[in-house]
C-alpha cells in the first residue's frame, strides 16, 4: 500500500519539468509547443525539439486557446504516457510482493541460524543436525590426561591409529569396528575418553547428545540422523560421538501408539549404521549408563561391534587419577596418594576430581598457597559425609550415645579377623545427617568377598546399636542407616549370592540398571518371599547377637574408648588401636 501510494506517483511524475507562465507564453509565441493539455489546476505541454514534458500553473488568460491554435499546438487529453496495464500490474503488485518475500527469506535465515544449524529447506533448523565439530587442537584433552582406564584407552587408541594409518590393517585384511559402545557408571570418564579421542585423532570429530534427536514434530529426529551422517560421510574418515544414546536407542516393544517419533529415529540410526548404502570411513562412538535398555538390533555386531566397559577404577587407577588431577592445583611435596586412594574406595573419576578440588578450596579457606595431606583427607570426608555442621550442638547425653555407637562399630570391626582396619572415628555432625561415622580403609583391592567376610560386615553394621544396648541399656534412632545397610547385604547373600542352605544356588532376585544404583526385583513366589524374609531376619539377628557378645567381652575397652572419643571428638585409627592393645 505504501509503495502504491508513494512510489508509483513519484515514478509517474519524475520526468515532468515545471516552468513559469512567462516561459510558456514565450514558447507559444515562438511556436515551440507540440502537444498541450489544459487541466483544472495546471497546463501540461511538450516541446517540438526533444519532447520534454513541461507543466505550469493556470492564469486568467482569455486568449490562451486562440494563441495555442495559431502556434500550431496540438490539443490532447493525455500527454503523460501511461504505462501498459501489464507493466503497471508488475510494478504495482508483483514488485512489492517480491520485496516482501526477500525480507521474509532473510529473516527466516537469521531465525534458523539462531535455532541452531540453519538449512534452506528445514524450518527453523528442526531437521538439521546440531552436532558440534571438533578440530585437532594442542589444548584439547589427550590420552595422557585420562588415567585409570587403561583397557578402554587401548581400545580407543587402536581406532585412532587406524584412522591415522589404515594401510597396516588393510594389508592383513582387518577392518575397524563400525561402532564402539562405552558403558559404565556415571562419572567414570566415558565422555572424557571421547574428548581424548577428539584430541588425539587428526580427523573431524562430531559430538552430539542422544536427547538432541528428540523433536516435537514426527520425522524431525530421523531427519537429524540423516543430516548428521550426510555431514559425516562428506568428511570421512571421521568419528561421530553420540552421548547418552539410550535416549533414542531403547528397545522397541510390540505396543502400538507409543512414541513413534523415537522409533523412527532409532530405525533411521540403524539404517545409517548398517544399511544398503553403508557408512565407510565413519566410526561411531556412543556412551550410555543403561546398556541393558538398548535395542538388540543396535548392539549387534556390524553396528556396535565392540563394547568397552568403563568401570569404577581400582586402587592403582584411583591413585593415577588423583595424580592427574593434582597436577592442576598446587600440592605439598609429601602427599601420600596411595593412602588417599585407599580412603576413597569405590569413588569414580569424577568424585576423585571433586575430592582434589575440595582440597584446593579448603587450602584457600585456610589462607594457604598449596593443598596438604590433611586437606585431601578432609575433602574425602566432605564428599562422603558432607561438611561439618557448625550449628549442630549435641547435648552431653546425645554426645555420649554417639560416642558409644561409633566405638561399637570400630570395636566389633577390630575384633573380627577379616574386617578392614579403622582409619578414623568422629562424632562431629555432618551436613549429610550423620551425627558421627567410622571410616574403615582396605589395604588393597577387593574383588571377592567370602561368606564369613560378609557376615562380619553385617556384625560391624549392628555394632553401633549393640554398643547402645550393652552400655546404656536403651536404643535410639541413630542406627537407621546401619539397619538399612545390614538388611540389604543380608538379602543379597540369600537371594543373589547363593549363601543360603535352603535355596542353594538359585537366584531369587535380579539386578536392574547395574550402573545406576543396581535396583533389584524379586522373581519368586509369595511363599518363597516369606521364607527369604525369615532367613534375612535370622541372619541379621545372629550377627547382632555376635556383636553384642564381642562388646560384652570387651566392655572395659568400650567404656574407655567411648570416654576418650567423647573428650577428643575425633580420633585416628592409630590412637584407637593403641588404646585397644594397651
The gist of it:
By secondary structure, the chain is of the alpha/beta class. It contains 20 helices and 16 strands.
| Secondary structural class | alpha/beta
Average pLDDT rating: 82
Indicate the radius of gyration in whole angstroms.
42 Å
General form: elongated
What is the CATH H-level superfamily of the largest domain? Peptidase M41
Which ranges are low-confidence, i.e. pLDDT below 50, for 5 or more consecutive residues?
115-124
Biggest sheet descriptor: 6 strands, mixed
- CATH topology (fold) name of the largest domain: Methane Monooxygenase Hydroxylase, Chain G, domain 1
Percent strand: 5-15%
CATH architecture of the largest domain: Up-down Bundle
Terminus-to-terminus distance: 103 Å
Read across the widest sheet, the strand sequence of neighbours is 6-8-9-10-7-11
Tell me the count of domains.
5
Helix content: 40-55%
Description:
The chain is α/β, with parallel strands linked by helices and 582 residues long. The protein folds into 5 domains: 2-75, Signal recognition particle alu RNA binding heterodimer, srp9/1 (2-Layer Sandwich); 85-125, no CATH class; 132-254 and 262-309, Rossmann fold (3-Layer(aba) Sandwich), CATH 3.40.50; 316-385, Orthogonal Bundle (Helicase, Ruva Protein, domain 3), CATH 1.10.8; 396-580, Methane Monooxygenase Hydroxylase, Chain G, domain 1. Helix content is 48%, strand content 12%. The chain has helices at residues 2-13, 21-29, 64-70, 85-116, 150-164, 167-172, 190-200, 220-234, 260-274, 296-299, 315-326, 337-343, 349-365, 373-385, 396-414, 451-472, 480-495, 526-553, 555-568, 573-580, and strands at residues 16-18, 33-38, 42-47, 53-57, 74-75, 132-134, 179-183, 205-209, 238-243, 282-288, 306-309, 422-426, 437-440, 509-512, 519-522, 570-572. The chain has a 6-stranded mixed beta sheet with strand order 6-8-9-10-7-11. Strands 1-4-3-2-5 form a 5-stranded mixed beta sheet, with helices on one face. α16 (451-472) packs across α18. The chain is elongated. Residues 115-124 have low confidence and may be disordered.
Amino acid at each position: 500500500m505504501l509503495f502504491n501510494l508513494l512510489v508509483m506517483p513519484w515514478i509517474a511524475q519524475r520526468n515532468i519539468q515545471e516552468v513559469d507562465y512567462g516561459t510558456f507564453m514565450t514558447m507559444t509565441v515562438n511556436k515551440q509547443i507540440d502537444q498541450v493539455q489544459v487541466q483544472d489546476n495546471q497546463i501540461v505541454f511538450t516541446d517540438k525539439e526533444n519532447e520534454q514534458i513541461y507543466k505550469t500553473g493556470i492564469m486568467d488568460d482569455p486568449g490562451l486557446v486562440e494563441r495555442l491554435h495559431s502556434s500550431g499546438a496540438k490539443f490532447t487529453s493525455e500527454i503523460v504516457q501511461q504505462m501498459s496495464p501489464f507493466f503497471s500490474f508488475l510494478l504495482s503488485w508483483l514488485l512489492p510482493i517480491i520485496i516482501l518475500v526477500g525480507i521474509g527469506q532473510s529473516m527466516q535465515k537469521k531465525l534458523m541460524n539462531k535455532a541452531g544449524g540453519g538449512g534452506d529447506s528445514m524450518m527453523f533448523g528442526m531437521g538439521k543436525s546440531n552436532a558440534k565439530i571438533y578440530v585437532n587442537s594442542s589444548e584439547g584433552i589427550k590420552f595422557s590426561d585420562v588415567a585409570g582406564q587403561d583397557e578402554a584407552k587401548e581400545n580407543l587408541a587402536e581406532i585412532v591409529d587406524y584412522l591415522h594409518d589404515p594401510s597396516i590393517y588393510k594389508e592383513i585384511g582387518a577392518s575397524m569396528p563400525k561402532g564402539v559402545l562405552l558403558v559404565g557408571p556415571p562419572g567414570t570418564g566415558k565422555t572424557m575418553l571421547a574428548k581424548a579421542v577428539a584430541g588425539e585423532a587428526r580427523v573431524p570429530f562430531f559430538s552430539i547428545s542422544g536427547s538432541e534427536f528428540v523433536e516435537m514434530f514426527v520425522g524431525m529426529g530421523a531427519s537429524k540422523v540423516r543430516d548428521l551422517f550426510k555431514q559425516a560421510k562428506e568428511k570421512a574418515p571421521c568419528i561421530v560421538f553420540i552421548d547418552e544414546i539410550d535416549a533414542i536407542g531403547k528397545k522397541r516393544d510390540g505396543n502400538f501408539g507409543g512414541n513413534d517419533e523415537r522409533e523412527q529415529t532409532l530405525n533411521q540410526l540403524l539404517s545409517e549404521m548398517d544399511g544398503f548404502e553403508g557408512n565407510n570411513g565413519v566410526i561411531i562412538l556412543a556412551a550410555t549408563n543403561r546398556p541393558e535398555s538398548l535395542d538388540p538390533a543396535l548392539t549387534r555386531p556390524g553396528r556396535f561391534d565392540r563394547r568397552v566397559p568403563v568401570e569404577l577404577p581400582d586402587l592403582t587407577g584411583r591413585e593415577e587419577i588423583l595424580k592427574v588431577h593434582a597436577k592442576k592445583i598446587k600440592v605439598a611435596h609429601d602427599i601420600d596418594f596411595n593412602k588417599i586412594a585407599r580412603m576413597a574406595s569405590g569413588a569414580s573419576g569424577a568424585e576423585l576430581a571433586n575430592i582434589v578440588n575440595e582440597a584446593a578450596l579448603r587450602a584457600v579457606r585456610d589462607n594457604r598457597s598449596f593443598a596438604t595431606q590433611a586437606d585431601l583427607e578432609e575433602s574425602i570426608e566432605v564428599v562422603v559425609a558432607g561438611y561439618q555442621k557448625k550449628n549442630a550442638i549435641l547435648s552431653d547425653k546425645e554426645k555420649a550415645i554417639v560416642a558409644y555407637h561409633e566405638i561399637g562399630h570400630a570395636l566389633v570391626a577390630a575384633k573380627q579377623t577379616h574386617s578392614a582396619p579403622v582409619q578414623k572415628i568422629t562424632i562431629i555432625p555432618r551436613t549429610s545427617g550423620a551425627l558421627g561415622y567410622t571410616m574403615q580403609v582396605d589395604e588393597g583391592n577387593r574383588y571377592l568377598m567370602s561368606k564369613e567376610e560378609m557376615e562380619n560386615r553385617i556384625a560391624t553394621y549392628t555394632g553401633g546399636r549393640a554398643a547402645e544396648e550393652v552400655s546404656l541399656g536403651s536404643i535410639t534412632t541413630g542406627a537407621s542407616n546401619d539397619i538399612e545397610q545390614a538388611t540389604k547385604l543380608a538379602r543379597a547373600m540369600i537371594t543373589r549370592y547363593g549363601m543360603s542352605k535352603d535355596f542353594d544356588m538359585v537366584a531369587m532376585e535380579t539386578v536392574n540398571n547395574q550402573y545406576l544404583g543396581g535396583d533389584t526385583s524379586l522373581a519368586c513366589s509369595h511363599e518363597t518371599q516369606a521364607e527369604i524374609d525369615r532367613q534375612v531376619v535370622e541372619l541379621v539377628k545372629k550377627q547382632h547377637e555376635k556383636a553384642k557378645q564381642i562388646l560384652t567381652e570387651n566392655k572395659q575397652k568400650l567404656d574407655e574408648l567411648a570416654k576418650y572419643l567423647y573428650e577428643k571428638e575425633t580420633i585416628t585409627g592409630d590412637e584407637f588401636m593403641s588404646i585397644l592393645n594397651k
